[in-house]
Amino acid sequence: MFDQNLALRKSLEDLCNARDAAIQAYTDARRLLNKAAAELSALGNYLWPYDSEPRKTVEEFTKEVDARMWRFAWDKTELPKVMDAKARSEFDTTLNDNPPPFTVANVRSALVGAYSQAEEMFARGLYEMFLTRDMGLKTNARERVKIPRKLIWVGAYVDSWGSGPLRFSYSTWHVDRLGDLDRVFKALAGLPYHPRELVTALTQAWAEGGNLYEDQFYRIRGYRNGNLHIELKQQALIDKANRILADYAGPVLAAAA
Asked: Rounded to an integer, what distance in angstroms lies between the CA atom of residue 193 and that of residue 178?
């Protein structure tokens, strides 16, 4: 289902070389600035211009460069398609706290490991989204391990603002919730997924009047009681998702019983 190629204009080796060159250049720049400061300080006080040194240490600069390089390379793969919002949040937390050095060996090892688990990661995200979250899906109450064609998201935080246009809540949780739905069906259709694309299109449609948004995948209607009624339009994709969900959820539910 997922292409394992890294879609980059430059090779991985080029990226790692650029990372090393940037860190070395920053290190050299700090050394030269320290030398300049020492030259002026030897003459007297207050000769070095205020705030002339970079604010980040070499270690801090290296950490931030590594985190940015990991995100840049990761987003050029198919892996964002298989990562739900929770998995992406955990990935971002790891990069913020302690990003591994962006080296050829580390990147290749991470990609091999991630792609070996890609199918399971995608299925786990599907399970988390439809079977473990309290989504208030009235229409699938009888479907324990099946995604229905029609969903009702109770309390989806559709802001009414009186009699004006409906407005979807931009809280991170609700945006991620709708984004995960779009990610799943775009991946199943073999199409690229762009975060917030569905939320943006939905908001724009409502701003133009009415409470209905529709595209080739979804028919979404918002109500002033805070509910979203979502119809999944492509039955073949629903069937594909349900096969994946059944294969994954069966052993999980059996183990939990």
From this structure: 12
pTM beyond cutoff 0.85: no
Identity of the amino acid at 166 = L
Integer Cα distance of 177 and 91 in angstroms = 17
| Helix locations, the chain, DSSP H | 12-41, 58-74, 79-82, 85-97, 104-116, 118-127, 172-188, 197-207, 235-256
Instruction: Provide block-wise average pLDDT over 10 residues at a time, the chain (257 residues).
Output: 58 93 97 93 90 89 96 89 86 92 94 89 85 50 70 71 70 81 92 89 86 94 85 94 86 52
151 phi, psi to nearest 5 deg: -125, 145
The candidate with the shortest Cα–Cα distance to 249, out of 77, 108, 127, is: 127
Place of tokens 């492509």: 234
Q: Are 231 and 150 in contact (CB under 8 A)?
A: yes
Helix axes 235-256, 118-127, angle to 10 degrees: 90
At 6 the pLDDT is: 56
Tell me if 106 sits within 8 A of 100, measured CB to CB: yes
CA distance 169 to 199: 9
